[in-house]
């Protein structure tokens, strides 16, 4: 089965084709036949595209900055031009989409129907940077491949559908809960893959492990995973709650927002922009939401960059402590995504802060940031792992699982 996977964001789109053959579901990723990265955040009105196949890598540029404008020329490279890997578009058997917010209606991977599309659209107000673009991608694929191609929605919130009520209910009026205002959690596709891969690395049954998985990228979240299921997480009703992130504030005193509205004249759109685009590492450093740039500035003596890093680390450690409390103990701490996989100083701070639990790193392994490796010292009683997240593979795997069951 050849599965087209689409993983869209606010300024770009990842697309790949994976082929999954034979009976059963393979656990380990297979190299994609075709892998494209589209970025419309660099040039006004244009999209830069990099396509990789077994034959090489190709740089392309197209006019347009929406999935509807970009997808057709990008996907046509599958069967035309130097990046061609298919004889025709009919060789694609299914398309899988990462959908950020499923709300109450969608608690598991789902075949896309007109009703499902309407539900995704309704959730767009809670994840506006993602759900609308993902819906555009669904419609673009339908236009390009025809309505007969099976399309599958893999929801970032689905892995957290197992949260117990005390972990997902907010302490506001009962009417909030009845209106669907509750903790949903996000990055579930990554947390699901990372938890399963961590168990493989440790040679343990997932049902026997208490894990805290740390997805630290531009967006950041933690999950407390017990018996292979999410029992707590840091993101909530929207992807804004929880950890400090690249440009997002994470959790702040809600009284600050009331103060800004009453005394500084802030409107909802202004608060949305400040909390999502002008806070986090970018806001405190005054430089960038990219951890690499913050670390470089800190090394050059920039005090604002140092404060940003220290606040980021402090809030990360505090939230990890909360996840450990929910689990009642810890067998392994797992770092993944861009910052989690590539920031040795951050992992070192976390390990030292939790040394009392039995965390201790092997300094050489930590410095190398090896993917899919236990970087603990030999005598650490709680293991620390670095796992390269494979969200796109997990989406393909979910597509194969669901369509094989229908």
Any guess at the CATH architecture of the largest domain? 2-Layer Sandwich
Beta strand count: 14
User: Could you name the ranges where pLDDT drops below 50 across 5 or more consecutive residues?
Assistant: none
Largest sheet at a glance?
A: 8 strands, mixed
Please, what is the CATH homologous superfamily of the largest domain?
A: ATPase, nucleotide binding domain
Overall structural class, as computed from helix and strand content, comes to alpha/beta
What's the gyration radius in Å? 21 Å
Indicate the proportion of strand residues. Answer: 15-25%
Explained architecture:
The chain has 406 residues and is an alpha/beta fold. It has two domains: 2-155, Nucleotidyltransferase, domain 5; 203-386, ATPase, nucleotide binding domain (Nucleotidyltransferase, domain 5, 2-Layer Sandwich). It has 15 helices and 14 strands. The strands form two sheets. An eight-stranded mixed beta sheet has the order 5-4-3-2-1-6-8-7, sandwiched between helices. Strands 11-10-9-12-14-13 form a six-stranded mixed beta sheet, with helices on both faces. Strand 10 and strand 11 (229-233) form a beta hairpin. Helix 1 (67-75) packs across helix 3 (131-145) and helix 10 crosses helix 11 (303-327). The longest helix is centred in the C-terminal third of the chain and has 25 residues, at 303-327. It is globular and about 60 Å long.
């Amino acid at each position: 089965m050849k599965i087209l996977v689409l993983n869209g964001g606010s300024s770009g789109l990842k697309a790949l084709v994976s082929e999954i053959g034979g009976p059963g579901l393979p656990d380990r990723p297979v190299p994609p036949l075709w892998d494209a990265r589209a970025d419309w955040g660099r040039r006004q009105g244009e999209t830069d595209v990099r396509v990789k196949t077994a034959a090489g890598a190709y740089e392309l540029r197209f006019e347009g900055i929406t999935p509807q404008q970009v997808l057709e020329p990008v996907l046509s490279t599958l069967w035309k031009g130097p990046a061609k890997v298919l004889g025709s578009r009919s060789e694609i058997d299914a398309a899988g989409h990462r959908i950020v917010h499923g709300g109450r209606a969608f608690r598991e991977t789902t075949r896309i129907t007109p009703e499902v599309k309407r539900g995704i659209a309704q959730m767009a107000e809670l994840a506006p940077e993602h759900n609308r673009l993902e819906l555009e991608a669904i419609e673009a694929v339908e236009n390009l491949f025809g309505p007969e191609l099976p399309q599958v929605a893999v929801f970032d919130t689905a892995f957290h559908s197992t949260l117990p009520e005390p972990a997902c209910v907010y302490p506001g009026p009962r009417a909030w809960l009845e209106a669907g205002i509750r903790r949903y959690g996000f990055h579930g596709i990554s947390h699901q893959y990372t938890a399963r891969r961590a168990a493989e690395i440790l040679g343990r049954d997932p049902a026997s492990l208490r894990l805290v998985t740390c997805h630290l990228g531009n967006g950041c979240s933690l999950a407390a995973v017990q018996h292979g299921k999410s029992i707590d997480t840091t993101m909530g009703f929207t992807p804004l709650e929880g950890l400090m992130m690249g440009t997002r504030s994470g959790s702040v005193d809600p009284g600050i927002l009331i103060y800004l509205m009453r005394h500084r004249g802030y409107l909802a759109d202004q608060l949305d922009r400040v909390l999502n685009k002008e806070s986090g590492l970018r806001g405190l450093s005054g430089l960038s939401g990219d951890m690499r740039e913050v670390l470089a500035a800190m090394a050059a003596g920039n005090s604002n960059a140092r404060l940003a890093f220290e606040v980021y680390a402090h809030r990360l450690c505090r939230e990890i402590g909360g996840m450990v409390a929910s689990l009642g103990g810890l067998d392994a701490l797992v770092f993944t995504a861009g910052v989690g996989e590539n920031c040795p100083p951050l992992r070192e701070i976390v390990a030292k802060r939790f040394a009392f639990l039995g965390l201790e790193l092997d300094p050489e392994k930590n410095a190398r940031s090896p993917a899919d490796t236990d970087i603990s010292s030999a005598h650490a009683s709680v293991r620390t792992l670095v796992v390269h997240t494979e969200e796109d593979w997990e989406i393909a795997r979910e597509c194969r699982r669901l369509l094989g069951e229908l």
